[in-house]
């Protein structure tokens, strides 16, 4: 059998004071009509990345409102994950397609996992392309199938997408973050649902300024000087080199400024390490640039502390599917500056709840504006927090899923 992920207990009632009673009541009403329905989420991994982050909260809340809901992760060896990494990059626009052998590996592992999946589900929600072939292999195991896409399919490698599409035809519905991500041919069955963060998770729960300062200080940050921060994987699309360039321009005007680049690393991801090393080289020994990763013990609490304490959160991506880090930052009412790409403009109204930028120069300019006008930073932060509360917290995501379950006639 596939491995079931053990999730914590969560209660929708605990969220009421944050998201309001109306939403929680709507959730209970919608859920009552679906009580006892058997739902399984299938994903590639239980750790790391946005999907796991979301399911850790969504699954226990689905259970709390009365659904018989589980989360299972597929089995795969290195050869499978090598193939799915090529697929992931290709679907987000990389010219390199999978080789015939890699497609065969992907298909073979999907067959193994399809066989291992239990049966008799009312609904099977398959996340992302790694396990996407399962519906076509064992359609009889669930009465309904939904494919949940977490990646940016707006400019895919067409050959890779064309090869994947026949497998997606087996899902009655597919779900995307934004309309621009819906592939041609699947528009008729597409739903748009934005992701969300859990305001009560250790990464997002309210920290006192003193606690945040205490943690940042441990990492060598001078907590009395301004700090810019970007939390993200060491990946060219997250543009940490551009962040360093922008920081240098700011530093010419404000010599006190510091920068923290915090990014988790997988020990088995050589590409990630190469880019991490390139980032360290680009920083060129500047003692005010702090480059940290999970091997320095930076976990959820530390990410929370950096996001809560810093003067500006940056996410200067040149490609971004949604950007949970953006939501995490604005939920903490921090002034935010990010690339005007993908899911970032979905969350930020330029000049109101943060700034959207298209270049290093613009990024530096906006940093200087915020650093020299605390009132501006505060206004942006408060507007951002309001957006996060209304649109991007897990109870809203739960409500959207329940509404979708109704639409598909469960
Ligand atoms: N993250 C983390 N530690 C790090 C870097 C990232 O916990 O050192 C988390 C981050 O807080 C966010 C997630 O990883 O919750 C990244 O999601 P996002 O959608 O921003 O980007 P992705 O990595 O999925 O492209």
Describe the structure.
With 410 residues, the chain is α/β, with parallel strands linked by helices. The chain has helices spanning 16-19, 21-32, 49-64, 78-91, 100-116, 134-137, 158-168, 209-218, 240-253, 270-283, 300-309, 324-331, 344-347, 360-371, 374-391, 394-407, and strands at 3-4, 38-43, 68-73, 123-127, 145-148, 173-176, 190-192, 227-231, 258-263, 289-293, 312-315, 336-339, 355-357. The chain has two domains: 3-196 and 393-407, 3-Layer(aba) Sandwich (Rossmann fold), CATH 3.40.50.2000; 209-391, Glycogen Phosphorylase B (Rossmann fold), CATH 3.40.50.2000. Helices cover 44% and strands 14% of the residues. The strands form two sheets. It has a seven-stranded mixed sheet, covered by helices on one side. A six-stranded parallel sheet has the order 10-9-8-11-12-13, sandwiched between helices. Strand 9 (258-263), helix 10 and strand 10 (289-293) form a beta-alpha-beta unit. It starts with a strand and ends with a helix. Residues 49-50, 53, 203, 231-233, 262-264, 294, 298, 303, 322-325, 328 line the site of uridine-5'-diphosphate.
């Amino acid at each position: 059998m596939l491995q079931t992920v053990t999730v914590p207990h969560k209660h929708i009632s605990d969220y009421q004071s944050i998201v309001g009673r109306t939403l929680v009541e709507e959730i209970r009403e919608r859920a009552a009509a679906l009580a006892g329905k058997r739902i399984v989420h299938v994903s590639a991994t239980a750790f790391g990345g946005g999907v796991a982050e979301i399911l850790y909260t969504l699954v226990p809340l689905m259970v709390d409102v009365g659904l018989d809901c589980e989360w299972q992760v597929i089995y795969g060896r290195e050869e499978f994950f090598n193939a799915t990494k090529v697929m992931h990059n290709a679907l987000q626009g990389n010219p390199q397609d999978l080789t015939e052998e890699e497609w065969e590996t992907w298909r073979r592992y999907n067959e193994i996992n399809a066989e291992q999946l239990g049966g008799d589900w009312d609904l099977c929600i398959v996340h992302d392309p790694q396990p996407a072939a399962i519906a076509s292999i064992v359609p009889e195991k669930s009465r309904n199938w939904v494919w949940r896409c977490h990646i940016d399919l707006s400019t895919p490698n067409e050959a890779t997408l064309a090869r994947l599409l026949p497998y997606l035809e087996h899902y009655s519905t597919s779900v995307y973050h934004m309309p621009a991500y819906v592939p041609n041919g699947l528009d008729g069955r597409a739903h748009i649902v934005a992701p969300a963060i859990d305001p009560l998770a250790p990464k997002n729960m309210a920290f006192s300024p003193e606690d945040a300062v205490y943690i940042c200080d441990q990492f060598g940050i001078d907590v009395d000087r301004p700090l810019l921060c970007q939390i993200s994987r060491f990946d060219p699309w997250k543009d940490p080199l551009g962040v360093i360039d922008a920081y240098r321009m700011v530093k010419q005007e404000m010599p006190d400024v510091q920068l923290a680049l915090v990014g988790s690393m997988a020990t088995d991801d050589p590409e990630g390490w190469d880019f991490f090393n390139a980032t360290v080289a680009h920083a060129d020994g500047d003692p005010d640039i702090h480059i940290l990763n999970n091997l320095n013990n930076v976990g959820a609490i530390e990410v929370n502390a950096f996001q809560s304490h810093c003067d500006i959160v940056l996410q200067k991506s040149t490609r971004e599917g949604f950007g949970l880090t953006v939501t995490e930052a604005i939920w903490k009412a921090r002034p935010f500056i990010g690339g005007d790409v993908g899911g970032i403009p979905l969350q930020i109204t330029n000049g109101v709840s943060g700034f959207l930028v298209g270049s290093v120069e613009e990024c530096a300019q906006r940093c200087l504006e915020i650093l020299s006008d605390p009132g501006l930073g505060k206004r942006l932060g408060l507007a951002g927090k309001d957006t996060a509360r209304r649109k991007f917290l897990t109870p809203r995501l739960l409500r959207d899923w329940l509404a979708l379950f109704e639409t598909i006639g469960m």
